[in-house]
Amino acid sequence: MRSKFLVLSLLMGAFLLPGSASAAIIDTSIGRYDVTTILTSFRGSETLLKSQVWWENVPLAEEFATLVGTTFGTPNLGIYAPFFWQTDRDTTGPCAGIGEPFAGIFWDHRAGRASPVCAASAPNGPFTFAVAERVGIPAPATAMLLALGLAGFGYVRRRTVHALT
Question: Looking at per-residue confidence, does 62 or 118 come out higher?
Answer without folding.
Answer: 62
